[in-house]
Write a structure and sequence with these properties.
four-stranded antiparallel β-sheet, Ribosomal Protein S5, domain 2, 11 helices, globular, single chain, alpha+beta, Alpha-Beta Plaits
């Protein structure tokens, strides 16, 4: 039995600039993102018979890889050369989809990690990220960028730069104490709404040609945010989150709605400096930057929402259990 643990992520600034349609014609995109201590898990176990058993939000029992309906599992098995006599189970610390914390790419990376280990292959974080991008973007044609695969594979807090021929992942070199202080100023709330991100991202991707200037501004904000973290100017980081959210809302008509806008206004009125809906938007988790002295006020103002405490996490995808008969 093999168990792979892969982190979820919070993307702070630069989301949307990781689409190839943007970075390939504008000299590059950039995202500031961090892994968090919430995870997806992939369990792989050899079976005595030749069948394929899959357990996720539903159960599949098939005899051939081609018959698998779960497209991420199917393509990960094809890519790693696993064909039969296997049982695969996936689990997550959050609802299965539509939350904005990068769970789909986390599952893809975790599947590759577990299946490569099952085959006895050693792979790097770069291998996992590249292969996950190939599955999700090239093979399955999902309207997504590359940030989620890379932060899931590499972990830590990273400034990720996207270019036509490469992706560069730089760890943001702030101290453990600075990370702790920043973490104290960040609150995460579940809006109670999940959504299919594909519709939002499809529109966002289609709008890229008309939103080039917005995306260039979002790229600049990601660079500025990295510098504010390195200098310890955390309140300024909160202001950049607010500026980035106001820009991001213009990328697609479904990123926000009246309910989300009302919640965000209440949080700002109670003392939050900035924030954003995680991921594509439309629902899922709301991230807020809030000075410690104002946290209780913000919590009280959003009493109808469930808070989701988290901490930054250093590790990327890894095998946490490996037992072979």
């Amino acid at each position: 039995m093999i168990i792979a643990q892969t982190p979820l992520r919070l993307s702070f600034l630069g989301g949307g600039t990781d689409f190839e349609d943007f970075y390939s014609v504008n000299g590059g995109g950039a995202v500031l993102s961090s892994a968090i201590d919430k995870f997806t898990f992939v369990i792989v176990k050899e079976r005595f018979d030749d069948m394929i058993y899959l357990n996720y939000s539903r159960k599949e029992i098939v005899s051939r890889v081609d018959d698998i309906e779960h497209e991420l599992i199917r393509e990960a098995m094809r890519m790693t050369g696993v064909e039969s006599s296997i049982e695969i189970t996936t689990m997550a610390d959050i609802p299965s989809e539509g939350t904005g914390l990068g769970s789909s790419s986390s599952i893809t990376v975790g599947l590759l990690q577990a299946l490569h280990t099952y085959r006895g292959n050693s792979v790097t974080a770069e291998d996992l990220a590249r292969q996950a991008c190939r599955i999700e973007i090239d093979i399955l044609g999902k309207p997504i960028g590359k940030q989620d695969q890379y932060i899931s594979a590499y972990g830590n807090m990273r400034f990720i730069s996207f270019f036509k021929d490469m992706v560069k992942t730089d760890r943001v070199g702030i101290s453990r104490e600075c990370k702790r202080k920043l973490n104290e100023n960040l609150l995460l709330f579940y809006t109670g709404r999940t959504r299919q991100s594909s519709g939002i991202l499809t529109e966002q991707k289609a709008n890229i040609g008309e939103r080039m200037d917005l995306l260039k501004e979002l790229t600049k904000l990601a660079f500025q945010a990295k510098q504010t973290l390195l200098s310890g100017a955390f309140n300024e980081f909160g202001e950049l989150l607010h500026e980035g959210w106001n820009l991001k809302k213009q990328l697609s008509s479904n990123i926000t709605n009246s309910d989300i806008d009302d919640i965000y206004r209440m949080a700002r009125k109670a003392g939050a400096i900035g924030g954003k809906i995680a991921g594509a938007g439309g629902g899922g988790f709301l991230l807020l930057y809030c000075p410690v002295a104002k946290r209780d006020n913000v919590r009280a103002s959003l009493g109808q929402l469930r808070e989701f405490p988290f901490h930054f996490h250093n590790d990327g995808s890894k095998v946490i259990f490996n037992y072979r008969n």
